[in-house]
Every structure is written in structure tokens, then in C-alpha cells.
Amino acid sequence: MRVAMISEHASPLAVLGGEDAGGQNTHVAELSTALAAAGHDVRVYTRRDGPELPETVRMSDAVDVVHVPAGPPEPIAKDELLPYMKDFSAWLVGRWRADDWVPDVVHAHFWMSGLAGIAAARQTGVPVVQTYHALGTVKRRHQGTADTSPARRVGYERALGRAVDRVIAQSQDEVRELVRMGVPLDRMTVIPSGVNNRTFSPEGPAVPRTPGRPRILTVGRLVERKGYQDLVRAMPMIPDAECVIVGGPPPGEVDTDPQVRRLRALAEEVGVADRVRLIGAVPREEMPYWYRSADLLVAAPWYEPFGLTPLEAMACGVPVVGTAVGGLTDTVVDGRTGDLVPPRDPAALGAAVRDLIVDRVRRYGYARAALDRAHREYSWSRTADQIGAVYSAVSEVRRPSGVVAG
Ligand code: UDP
């Protein structure tokens, strides 16, 4: 099938770890590659956010990334992108007609891509599949007035859920949230993200370790909801171990980054500054080296739509101590591949990590089970097969849609 992936802010070609570049970018890149490997013709449409970007870049065999001119060709925070979605969809329609390449299905990633997708699909009669990646209702619940999303986000997300042909939820928790929002259950299919088991495996180079120090790794964008501050606060309970935080600014800008400074100041305050290291963003291809160097991964978000980093660690044979939220409650099997603790609870986190660090036998057991689970249950080819089946189903039954793009 001809598949148009729309990922308005998250380019599959982006450098990851910065504030708006993480799991969605990985997801779109890996899913597109796996769909192409299964024989689909995939084009990924993402906003042109630099003047130097060519219109089309070949990412891999049978996957083109197309940079859509919508708004100024410069980086813009995703919460500021809504006004450009009309231009985005109009450009898509013009391009599909000009190229004589009308997709069989549009797969939109994130709510704004959904608006652009629905608007374009309405003019071309193409079905739309939606993956939210994150929900405004959840973000608002946790962030309150600190949430910078456009005020209309939640309303649009609800309308989208009723207008698209199919919603792909990434976890059971997301299904519950979508039902609470009023999205009909029969419109949803649960398909988890995958992990690249060739890239993420126990065999291969590892970053050298600090002699005599167990290593706790945590990975992701340096945003508050990832809970790094809770891990730093837990560190006094975990003597001797070092905590390595991967993600955030490019390496040259680590020392001046405000989030890094805040975490370092906290580490100073709780007396663990000599055992907390902030590395900055690491290129995607080097991530396995970091996972392999760790005794365990901590993923302590306050909420998490899916969470790729626990799966990546598991695929490298690294157990996870995580918070019992969102996708982690599906991927991490509590007491078998890792331990789950309540979110925003440094004492519970510290106790769980300390106990697992000292209990080498349990840690090895978890590591084996984690590796086994990641390799058996999660792969991008499996995700692509399931999503391909959804594409086929929605192409057979086309429904008229009814949402208005802002
Ligand atoms: N990542 C990376 N380099 C970094 C930090 C993160 O390549 O410095 C990748 C990480 O390996 C994972 C993704 O970014 O593939 C983060 O995805 P996750 O779902 O854990 O978090 P999100 O960004 O969606 O909140």
C-alpha cells in the first residue's frame, strides 16, 4: 500500500534527546522502515524546520522523508505549530495531486498531524489512522497551569478520535484514557511500539564503567515529567552506585543547560553530586553502548504514553525499575523483568533500586526475562504487520469524517 505518514514536529531524521525529539521520532523512523521492508511504499511528511533541508530525503530503501513548507523554515516549539497545520494539509493535497501519488492510507502521529491528515484526506477520500503518542488530558492533569499546549488541544483530540477511521492505542492505559475522553472503544486497536532487536541486544560494545561503582542508567528528554529529580532524591538511599542521565542538550551545551543545572544543584543539595553524571544527548546508534554498560535502567516518569527506553534496555538484557504508569505497566512485568513503584515517590524508588542492586541473583533473573520478553513480544516487524492489517481493514471500509482543522 502507499502509506503517507504524517509527523508534523517529529522528524525521523532528527537528532534525539532534545525537548521535542524522542520517542515519536524513533517510532516513525522504525515503523516506516519495517512497513517498507514488508513491501509498503512509505512517505513520511514532516515540517521543514531548517532552510538547508532538501524537499525530499531518502531515509532507507522505499522510505522518503518529505519536508513540508508550513510556517517559517526554522525550529518552532511544537506547542506553537497549530496555526501552520492548514498550510501543511493544503500542501499535501497539492503535492499528491501533482505527483499522481495519492496514498491509500494516511497515518497521523500526534494530534496536530491528525488535523492535517483529516483535512487532506477529506479532499482525497483517503482513510486516516491516528496514533496520539501523548494525550492533552493526561498532560493537563499532571502539569496543570504549566501545560503550554494550545487550549483547544483536548477538544481536537476528542473530535479526532471520533472522526478518524481507526485509533491505534499503544497501551491498555491509553485505551482507558481514550474511553474517558469519549473515543468509542470500537474505533481502537491496541498495538504496542516495538524495539529494534538487532540494534538493541546484549552483544556489542559498551561504554566503560567506573570501577567499583554499580551503574544506574536513565534515558530521555530532560523534561520534568520524566522524574529525574525523583531519582536524584533517591540516590542517598543507594550507596556507592553512580547515576548516569543520558539525554537533553548536545554534549557541548551540557554545562549551560538550565535543566542540567537544576538537576546538578539538586544533586549537590542532597549530597550525591559526585555520583550523578549528566551526559547530554547521545546519537541513536550509540544508545546500545550505554544500556549495555548499566546494571539497571530506571524509568521514573510521572506519566508515560508508551516509553521506548525501558524496552530498549530490556532488549539489551538490562532489568528496569520503573514507575507503574502508562505503557510501563504493559512492558515491564513487575517482579519478573523489573520492579514497578509508585510515581513521584523517591523513597519507594530508592528502596527498589537498592534492593535490586544488592540482590545479584534476582537482577540476573530479571535480565534474562527482560531480554526474552523484549525479543519474543516486541519487534518492529510485528508492530508493522499489525498496523498493516489495520491499514487494509480501513481501506476496505471507508467512512466519511467530520472534524474541522484549526
Ligand atoms: N534517545 C536517544 N538519545 C538520547 C535520548 C534519547 O537516541 O540522548 C532516544 C531513546 O533511545 C528512545 C527515544 O529517544 O528511542 C525516547 O523515547 P521514549 O519513548 O522513551 O520517550 P519520549 O521521548 O517519547 O518521551
UniProtKB/TrEMBL annotation:
Domain Glycosyl transferase family: 211-361
Pfam families documented for this protein: Glyco_transf_4, Glycos_transf_1
Domain of life the protein comes from: Bacteria
Keyword entries, A-Z: Glycosyltransferase, Transferase
SUPFAM superfamilies: UDP-Glycosyltransferase/glycogen phosphorylase
Domain named Glycosyltransferase subfamily 4-like N-terminal: residues: 22-196
GO molecular function, one term: glycosyltransferase activity
EC number assigned by the record: 2.4.-.-
InterPro entries named among the record's database cross-references: Glyco_trans_1, Glyco_trans_4-like_N, Glycosyltransferase_grp1
PANTHER family, per database record: SULFOQUINOVOSYL TRANSFERASE SQD2
Protein name: Glycosyltransferase
